Amino acid sequence: MSHHLVAAEGLRYRYPDGTPALAGVSFRIVHGESVALVGASGAGKSTLLLLLAGSLLPQEGRVLIGDFPVTPSTLPAVRRSVGLVFQDPDDQLFCPTVADDVAFGPRNLGVPEEAVAERVRTALAKVGAEALAKRPPHRLSAGEKRRAALATVLSMDPGVLVLDEPSSGLDPRGRRQLIAILTAFTHTKVVATHDLELALETCARTIVLSKGTVRADGPTAELMRDDALLEEAGLERPASLRRCPACGEGA
Ligand SMILES: Nc1ncnc2c1ncn2[C@@H]1O[C@H](COP(=O)(O)OP(=O)(O)O)[C@@H](O)[C@H]1O
Ligand SMILES: [Mg+2]
């Protein structure tokens, strides 16, 4: 499956209890792009990521990964090429050790055990977590858990990385490490976040979601200076783009 495209075309989704989540979302992301998905709580970010990763199926419209629409028959291929990192690492880590968790996906695919070991080493190295291999995940710090969860997805060697609020619960150092890891991942990535500073540092392009629709789609640095847009979308200009209240410098 080629990874040259991630696209949404007229996507609509309503949860079984009747709550509307997406009300017609369209965009195209090409190979190698990093796109931030921002918007107020409830805007539909998580739902959109679940649809991109094939964890939910569209009720109207379609998702394209590579050349294929996501349908029940393409799901296995979609799930191999799109790696979804959940908002809560505890949803991703359930084995006795970090190494087992990172090995879980490749083992499930039937990758030979020697190659699995190599994948585990490589994935843990990418997130600087080699020393965590033998540790039980539930004993890790928030930042360590986050990196371990990322490694469980990287071991599948996805062409597209999709992350839901990756900086939530991280201290400043953990956040720095995360930004470095995301910047080093040169494949296509989509990052849903309320952390506009993270968006600014890791994604050249931003899609602003508002009430289940695309309110804006463009260069992150431009959108983050558009106070009217940010206000309307329930967001605030990142601190690094604000003027210093004391001296008026910056922005
Ligand atoms: N499992 C669910 N069942 C019913 N409604 C849901 C469910 N998950 C999310 N929603 C609703 O769908 C809308 C979009 O939610 P979500 O995609 O989680 O937004 P975001 O990630 O931007 O906060 C919200 O109104 C939310 O309450
Ligand atoms: Mg969410």
Give the topology.
Elements: E1 5-14, E2 20-30, E3 34-38, H1 45-52, E4 60-65, E5 68-69, H2 75-81, E6 82-85, H3 98-108, H4 113-126, H5 142-154, E7 160-164, H6 172-184, E8 188-192, H7 196-202, E9 205-210, E10 213-219, H8 220-223, H9 227-232
Parallel strand pairs: 3-8, 3-9, 6-7, 7-8
Antiparallel strand pairs: 1-2, 1-4, 4-5, 9-10
Bound molecules: adenosine-5'-diphosphate and magnesium ion.
Beta-strand percentage? 15-25%
Measured as a percent range, the helix fraction is 25-40%
CATH-defined superfamily of the domain at 5-90 and 158-241: P-loop containing nucleotide triphosphate hydrolases
Biggest pleated-sheet summary: 6 strands, mixed
Which sequence of SSEs, written as H and E, runs from N to C? EEEHEEHEHHHEHEHEEHH
Structural class: alpha/beta
Counting H and I runs of at least 4 residues, what is the number of helices? 9
* Uncertain segments: none
Mean of all residue-level pLDDT scores: 93
CATH topology value of the domain at 5-90 and 158-241: Rossmann fold
* Termini gap: 43 Å
Task: Describe the protein in words.
A six-stranded mixed β-sheet has the order 6-7-8-3-9-10, with helices on both faces. It is α/β, with parallel strands linked by helices and 251 residues long. It has a domain at 5-90 and 158-241: P-loop containing nucleotide triphosphate hydrolases (Rossmann fold, 3-Layer(aba) Sandwich), CATH 3.40.50. 33% of the residues lie in helices and 24% in strands. The mean pLDDT is 93. The protein binds adenosine-5'-diphosphate and magnesium ion. Adenosine-5'-diphosphate binds at residues 15, 17, 19, 21, 39, 41-47.
